[in-house]
Amino acid sequence: MYASVFTIFTIATTASFAIAAPQVKERSNTTSASCGTVSQRKSWVDLTNDEKTAYLDAEVCLMSLPATAGFPGAQTRWDDLQFAHINSTNVVHDVGGFLPWHRLYMYTHITMLQNECNYTGVQPYWEELLDSSNLTASSIFDPVYGFGGDGNGTDECITDGPFANVTLHLGPIYEVTDHCISRSLNDNAIKWANQTYLDIVFAAQNYSAAWPLFSSWPHTAGHAAIAGVMLDVTCSPGDPIFFLHHTNLDRLWWEWQAMDLTTRLTDMDGQNVPTAEYIAEMGIYNVTDSWLDYDGDNGGNVTTLNHTLSVLGLVPNATIADVMDIQGGLLCYEYV
Length: 336
Ligand SMILES: *[C@@H]1O[C@H](CO)[C@@H](O)[C@H](O)[C@H]1NC(C)=O
Ligand SMILES: *[C@@H]1O[C@H](CO)[C@@H](O)[C@H](O)[C@H]1NC(C)=O
Ligand SMILES: *[C@@H]1O[C@H](CO)[C@@H](O)[C@H](O)[C@H]1NC(C)=O
Ligand SMILES: *[C@@H]1O[C@H](CO)[C@@H](O)[C@H](O)[C@H]1NC(C)=O
Ligand SMILES: *[C@@H]1O[C@H](CO)[C@@H](O)[C@H](O)[C@H]1NC(C)=O
Ligand SMILES: *[C@@H]1O[C@H](CO)[C@@H](O)[C@H](O)[C@H]1NC(C)=O
Ligand SMILES: *[C@@H]1O[C@H](CO)[C@@H](O)[C@H](O)[C@H]1NC(C)=O
Ligand SMILES: *[C@@H]1O[C@H](CO)[C@@H](O)[C@H](O)[C@H]1NC(C)=O
Ligand SMILES: *[C@@H]1O[C@H](CO)[C@@H](O)[C@H](O)[C@H]1NC(C)=O
Ligand SMILES: *[C@@H]1O[C@H](CO)[C@@H](O)[C@H](O)[C@H]1NC(C)=O
Ligand SMILES: *[C@@H]1O[C@H](CO)[C@@H](O)[C@H](O)[C@H]1NC(C)=O
Ligand SMILES: *[C@@H]1O[C@H](CO)[C@@H](O)[C@H](O)[C@H]1NC(C)=O
Ligand SMILES: [Cu+2]
What we know:
Number of helices: 10
CATH class: Mainly Alpha
Helix content: 25-40%
Structural class: mainly alpha
Strand order of the largest sheet: 1-2
Strand content: 5-15%
Order of helices and strands: EEEHHHEEHHHHHHEEHE
Largest sheet: 2 strands, antiparallel
Bound molecules: 2-acetamido-2-deoxy-beta-D-glucopyranose, copper (II) ion
């Protein structure tokens, strides 16, 4: 239904195809001087069945709690979380703040699971590379220890798994309508998560070059491969797979940062406002002057470490500087 919602950027060079897989220097420690106890974010396939169940139950819990933020149309806490993305879409996509904002959004999600649903487990990620040659074989679609499978029929509603009968209240785009979680699995799109494209992304030598590549390939891969709700540029967090997908993207950004950590803990760049073409193609609202006054970049169109990140109060505003280090104080996790 929203087949063109995610733009595929043009790749200017193919020279980087030959570059080998990155050697990642992960810091590995369970406590950190700067942030305390370090939470380990794990691949979905490395969770035990009990851990998977606890995570899925916590997501169902958030969907069952009543909305409290006063956002228009929101009925549940899940809707509140989704609204923060809907309402921010035009200032957090096609911009330099794309990766930092979604890092804060992943933090918002896990914080709500912990504080409101008593979740004590880790934030898992979907290691899409493992599934990039066979999407439908992925264990994330398991009907018991996963998110259920493909959509069915003209509405493309999912029919099994813990979210089969969930009613979403927000979407499509900016509308407020009741609908199911829809999917339309696409085996071709998941290929954009394969090693060929990761090599292109990891060959980028600075954030300015890297962020559009992250957005184009591994980011588009998960959205377009799941499709349905996941292909709706504003409402995609309605499908809980969104959080596994974007945590994986966050992991990839962190692995890229870790290749030259000293430099890349402060490397920020990119436009602050999406291009007019992007806004028109996505059918999203123009960015207002009042937001530009507040973004922390002194009225400029270049994203800096001072840039304000807002999830509409679900967690306090932060700056991009606050989220550059996943063990910087506000954030305290590692990827294993
Ligand atoms: C882990 O962190 C603690 C506290 O910051 C530090 O004392 C210790 O040396 C670290 N261990 C490793 C293996 O890095
Ligand atoms: C954000 O939501 C408010 C209502 O709370 C609305 O007035 C505003 O137009 C929305 N902005 C965007 C960009 O979606
Ligand atoms: C979380 O735990 C508290 C304290 O035990 C309890 O009052 C609350 O109902 C629990 N919340 C949920 C959503 O289960
Ligand atoms: C993908 O995996 C499924 C389930 O294991 C299998 O039935 C199918 O043949 C596989 N497809 C390809 C192209 O390997
Ligand atoms: C899929 O949809 C068709 C109608 O389009 C329906 O007959 C069938 O029962 C559905 N399958 C499941 C598993 O819900
Ligand atoms: C969804 O509803 C169908 C039909 O009422 C029911 O068979 C199924 O168990 C429900 N699934 C969940 C996860 O609640
Ligand atoms: C990745 O997918 C592309 C097709 O989109 C294909 O040409 C390429 O060979 C694949 N790379 C790997 C390593 O499988
Ligand atoms: C980033 O690297 C690209 C080459 O990958 C280069 O063309 C560009 O000038 C660099 N940008 C900055 C801001 O350093
Ligand atoms: C911001 O920069 C982008 C890319 O250069 C440009 O397309 C857009 O029009 C600029 N927006 C504003 C408000 O200056
Ligand atoms: C958004 O701004 C562009 C100019 O940058 C204008 O052409 C367009 O009509 C505006 N769209 C809306 C919905 O206001
Ligand atoms: C951030 O803001 C501070 C004080 O407002 C300023 O000194 C600093 O130069 C700014 N940094 C950037 C990268 O804009
Ligand atoms: C958070 O930032 C947004 C702009 O991104 C701003 O509108 C809002 O007032 C800020 N909230 C607080 C509490 O400062
Ligand atoms: Cu997004």
